[in-house]
Specification:
The protein is of the alpha/beta class and 468 residues long. The protein folds into three domains: 4-97, Rossmann fold; 113-332, TIM Barrel, CATH 3.20.20.20; 356-441, no CATH class. Helix content is 32%, strand content 15%. It has 14 helices and 15 strands. The strands form three sheets. An eight-stranded parallel sheet has the order 10-9-8-7-6-5-12-11, covered by helices on one side. A four-stranded parallel sheet has the order 2-1-3-4.
Length: 468
């Protein structure tokens, strides 16, 4: 257990760091703060620490450097004879770093299998089906569902099943045509969608596991009779009582799922969620969170998901994140709050890290012309040695700032201030020189580990008239 922890920082962050550390109670170590002699703490490197920190590490037996600090900390630890660790990239996240924000939860486990439907499989060449299957699998799907189309020939169905199976994935064939279901089964499909009490005789002709639906629609008695018949025959099956769209029977269909689970507590149940995610003009992150919360409560074991509409283009990634979040919440017996922020695409729970007064105190210490940008409750703060301006719209900060003579810097500030305004209006965390974190809603841009923020673009001094 560390007895004395030394926090290294720069001129501008020292006061804030002391404030944050002073607010932490019941720490099991003593602490001190040391200004390593740079203005911006994020630009600290292992080599700089090696040159400027005394060999006795000021009596500490653990050293915490900013999360952006680059270099070989393991080697530095050996040289100093004390542990040197990276802290969080934002010093305001130190409480969570020391367990004051709750322990990290493992999201590696889940108990829901995702079927991802290729809704237009007959119109795609085998190569296109394989490409789609690979993308869906990368997003988290375990089963690729080949969606057949009414009155549309699918001559390469067998080839498609074989190609997807060759990827190591499970395959289902989704068709209202018994002939296509038989063809898919002979080609090696693992599941067929969908049989009902009226078409159950087909189950005797196929080896694939059938997904059963009510017939007529909504008739749970027929679904349970079909299940009982297959159970007595020793066949496995999955039940789907069918989720209806909003506001055309959605609530009643949820009640059917609950009743189905009550009647058959051990059965595998599938829920197709596309009728909700695809047919509502709303962001799918929140819908997936809610749907998978219901799925967790009902013990639904399989989900059929689609991503067809452009606004659903991340639906599978979100479904994968949601099943893990809800599984963790259920396993731990806690609300799905503070476990994982992956579905909070538009807003962050703690978007602002500094008060306006803290930013003003930092701004008063600036001795160079480079602009800094931070957010507080009152808006966007733009400051350097010459000015400290606050606005709620990026354009309200122009004209001004004496950047007109430096096109590159004007462009840089335009990009950063636009990003800052987006974050401020939505309620997202903003850090200058960093992309906004949209979590599971987008593919994250590649980022090397412990990358330092690009130092804030240096503002060029304006040229004097007549001087090149």
């Amino acid at each position: 257990m560390s007895r004395h922890t030394l926090f290294l920082t720069g001129h501008l962050a020292e006061r804030r760091l002391r404030t944050v550390l002073g607010g932490l109670r019941d720490l099991d170590f003593a602490w001190s703060v040391h200004d390593i002699g740079v203005q911006v703490a994020a630009l600290m490197t292992a080599d700089l620490v090696r040159r400027r920190l005394p060999k006795d590490a000021l009596g500490a037996d653990r050293v915490i450097v900013p999360g952006h600090c680059q270099g070989d900390l393991a080697g530095l630890s050996v040289e100093l004879g004390v542990a040197v660790e990276r802290g969080p990239e934002d010093l305001h996240d130190l409480p969570a770093f020391f367990g004051r924000g709750g322990e990290a939860v493992d999201l590696g486990a889940h108990d829901v299998r995702i079927f991802a439907e290729i809704v237009d499989a007959p119109t795609l060449a085998p190569e296109g089906i394989v490409a789609r299957a690979e993308a869906f699998a990368a997003a988290g799907a375990e089963v690729i569902d080949l969606g057949c189309l009414p009155a549309t020939p699918f001559p390469h169905l067998e080839q498609a099943v074989a190609a997807v199976k060759a990827l190591g994935l499970l395959v289902s064939v989704d068709s209202a045509d018994p002939g296509e279901l038989k063809r898919g089964d002979r080609a090696g499909a693992d599941f067929v969608l969908s049989l009902s009490e009226a078409t159950l005789d087909l189950a005797a002709e196929i080896a694939a596991t059938p997904i059963l639906i009510p017939s007529p629609a909504g008739d749970l008695d027929s679904l349970c009779r079909a299940a009982d018949r297959l159970a007595r025959a020793g066949r496995s099956f999955i039940l789907d009582s069918v989720l209806d769209p909003i506001p055309f029977g959605f609530t009643a269909s949820l009640l059917r799922y609950a009743e189905l689970r009550r009647r058959l507590p051990e059965a595998r149940i599938l829920m197709g969620i596309g009728n909700v995610t695809e047919l509502v003009d709303a962001d799918t992150t929140g819908m997936n969170a809610l749907l998978f919360g219901i799925i967790a409560e009902l013990g639904v074991t399989d989900v059929l998901a689609v991503q067809v509409s452009p606004h659903c283009r991340r639906a599978l990634h979100e479904a994968d994140r949601a099943r893990r979040l809800m599984h963790a919440a259920k396993r731990l017996g806690r609300l799905p709050v503070g476990i994982d922020a992956g579905l909070m695409a538009l807003r962050d729970r703690k978007p602002l890290t500094a008060a306006a007064e803290e930013i003003a105190a930092t701004a008063a210490q600036i001795r160079d012309a480079n602009f800094r940008i931070e957010l507080a409750a009152d808006g966007i703060h733009l400051y350097n040695r010459d000015q400290h301006r606050v606005a709620q719209r990026a354009l309200d900060l122009f004209p001004g700032g004496a950047v007109e003579a430096d096109g590159a810097h004007a462009f840089y500030l335009g990009v950063e201030l636009a990003r800052a305004e987006i974050a401020w209006r939505l309620g997202k965390r903003y850090v200058q020189d960093e992309d906004l974190d949209w979590h599971s809603a987008v593919d994250a841009a590649p980022r090397p580990a412990h990358r330092a923020p690009g130092p804030t673009l240096q503002r060029r001094a304006p040229r004097r008239r007549g001087v090149p």
